[in-house]
Amino acid sequence: MLDLMLDLLGLPPDWSATGHEIDELIGVLHWLMLILFVPWAIYFVYVLVRFRAGANPKATHADAKAKINKYAEVAVVIAEVVILVGFAIPSWAKRVSDFPSEDESNVIHVIAQQFAWNFHYAGSDGVFGSRKPEFVDEVTNPIGLDPSDAAGADDITTINQLYLPVDKPTIFYLSTKDVIHGFSIPYLRVKHDAIPGMTIPLQTTPVQTGESDFGCAQLCGNSHYRMKGVFHVLSQDGFDEWLAEQGS
Predict the structure, then answer these.
(1) In this structure, are strands 181-185 and 210-216 parallel, antiparallel, or unpaired?
(2) CB of 203 within 8 A of CB of 169?
(3) Is residue 63's pLDDT more than 90?
(4) What is the pLDDT, as a whole number, of residue 163?
(5) Which phi and psi angles does 57 have, rounded to 5°?
(6) Which of the four pLDDT bands, split at 50, 70 and 90, describes residue 97?
(7) How far apart are CA 22 and CA 37, in angstroms?
(8) How confident is the model at residue 223 (pLDDT cuts 50, 70, 90)?
(9) Are 88 and 21 contacting, i.e. CB atoms less than 8 angstroms apart?
(10) Is-contact 198 111, C-beta < 8 A?
């Protein structure tokens, strides 16, 4: 039944290790909404007919005596507690609290701006160079890498092109140069706001190679529609070769 609901929803392919948990939660929520909607819709139509003005010319002000409403409300509360405790909280904890170590992960700094995505890789030394606002140049240095910091000499930056290795955890550190943006990669079930003044960690593990689109999921200005890019999931060897090519 759950697979049927997921098929009906038309969700995009799942390329992440934990995406099935999110899909299951979405399916359960939609089944619950369907179970609630059908009886309430029938009851609503019944009330419209049963208590129409023609059949009830004089209003009745006595309180309703039926207990079925209380039972229905209790059932809904129990269902919501089960969804929250059994599905939502464990899934959230696994994706947010149970982070892999940086030593075993691919770490990328994501810097959003109107209207592009900047990706910052540490390079061959594995150490990120420092970034400072005074060094930002939208043409030559959009993320403001400090040219005097030796750690940043081999750093790699891309715009709207995201490269990831397959079967290896990736940690994103999400920030923004201006307004709120929504970092959304549907195939990897990654979606979170980039908020001014904050650096927000996210994690995912791609399990399939390929490429697809990603974009901004928050209205961020008059060119929000073109704030999109392409993510590429490569084999580990392919990703290492790409890093070497960019570094050279």
Answers:
(1) antiparallel
(2) yes
(3) no
(4) 97
(5) -65, -20
(6) low
(7) 22
(8) very high
(9) no
(10) no
CATH class of the domain whose range is 2-97: mainly alpha
Q: Label the pairing between strands 116-121 and 106-113.
A: antiparallel
CA atoms within 13 A on the CB side of 201: 15
Six-digit token string for 100? 């892999």
* Predicted pLDDT at 18: 84
**What is the predicted pLDDT for the residue at 28?**
81
Nearest to 187 by CA among 230, 235, 157: 230
Question: Count of residues for the chain?
Answer: 248
Burial class of residue 11 in the structure, from the number of CB atoms within 10 Å of its CB (0-12 exposed, 13-18 middle, 19+ buried): middle
Residue environment code for 106-121, b if the CB has 16+ CB neighbours within 10 A, otherwise e? bbbbbbbbbbbbbbbb
Q: Render pLDDT for 101-157 as a digit per residue (tens, 0 to 9).
A: 888 899 999 999 999 999 999 988 889 999 999 999 988 999 999 999 888 889 999
Q: Are 113 and 178 in contact (CB under 8 A)?
A: yes
Residue 23: φ, ψ to 5°: -65, -40
Instruction: Please give the model's pTM, rounded to 2 decimal places.
Output: 0.79
CATH 1.20.120.1760 fits 104-247, yes or no: no
Domain ranges for the chain: 2-97, 104-247
Residue type at 4 in one-letter notation: L
For residues 129 and 120, the answer to whether their CB atoms sit within 8 Å is no
Cβ atoms of residues 108 and 120 within 8 Å? yes
DSSP per position, 144-197: -B-TT-GGGTT-EEEESEEEEETTS-EEEEEEESSS-EEEEEGGGTEEEEE-TT
Average pLDDT over residues 63-79: 73
pLDDT confidence of residue 95: 64
Distance, CA of 156 to CA of 121 (rounded, Å): 5
